[in-house]
Prior knowledge:
Layout: H1 6-9, H2 21-24, E1 35-36, H3 48-55, H4 68-78, E2 85-88, H5 91-102, E3 108-113, H6 117-125, E4 129-134, H7 145-155, E5 159-163, H8 175-184, E6 189-193, E7 215-220, E8 233-237, H9 239-248, H10 256-265, H11 269-292, E9 296-298, E10 305-308, H12 312-321, E11 324-325, E12 327-328, E13 337-340, H13 345-358
Parallel strand pairs: 1-11, 3-4, 3-5, 5-6, 6-7
Antiparallel strand pairs: 2-8, 7-8, 9-10, 10-13, 12-13
Amino acid sequence: MLHAKQHIVALPAGEHGGLNSAGLTGSGKNSGDVLDFSTCCNPYGPPKQLRRAIREINSSLYPDPDSTKLVRALAKKMGINQDNLIAGSGSTEIIRLAAAAYLGPGDSVVMPAPTYGEYELACRIVNSHVIKFILNEKDGFKLNAAEFAAFAKYHKPAGIFLCNPNNPTGQYLSYDHVYMIIQDFPDSLVVLDEAYIAFTGSAWDSLKLLKSPNLLIVRSMTKDFALAGLRLGYGIAQKSIIDALKKVRPPWNVNSPAQQAGLMALSCDDYILSCCERINRCKLYLSGELIKLGLKVIPSQTNFFIFKTGDAAGFKSRLLERGFMVRDCTSFGLPGYIRVSPRSMPDCRKLIAAIREVC
């Protein structure tokens, strides 16, 4: 019998939020019956002009393999050179390209935990050794940058992954702390994942760090513009890093509808600002009501947060029976926590009513 490599056989299945057939099995629910609070995308959907742009795509043609128009427009908007950009099929593809290009068997990679599970999976696919710096519950899962740097130095990492703001905890590192880590590890690739930066209050500009030769910034347009079904993200770095990622990039990695939607989205800043205001009001409502119910809520600086239930799997199951999907954080190493991201205010009120029933 043919066998995959041993380290591949040992890989766990990746777990993510969102409605899927497997997650609904046994619940008696169809996707149309469930309000999904488990994913952290813009709940108000894409702007109308994006929907029109997608409908006009000729799907019989191959997409531009370099996403040239999108990359050029992104570069112009950010005031950087297009050689500093690469488009991807979601930010997760950029993460996997980084692991493929810069990491390998025997390399040590350091990351806080809990954090986004795809960092570990990408590293383990290339047979690198993942070392976790465990965040403390009593500190609200905040990362002490100095302690993290001291921990990482001991392990001499080839790579460091920082999710900022962090998923699932919603904690946000300052410019000074990120700058310190980048400077302390000149021989390590530092991946700064800003997938949720559009929803983060008082966010600082990471492009100030672009001259750092060891930094890769990863961003998502999937989250901002509710394009989860299309998959769209991008990486920002020095040209040498971008060139390396391009060498391991699959051909035609970003489909034509995603490229066109991304191009149109760049003129929709007012839409995002409007959505963020509504999302924040709904988030404050949800967290306030959960606190009233006696649940421990971890303060967050972005469009999602976690709260403690004691039995996340059971809590999720009871809510699903009532037509609500939330994220069980067991796969993050937090079996007592649930993550939620706001939907519209009427939907949020329905969720709170259901939580009152299951608490």
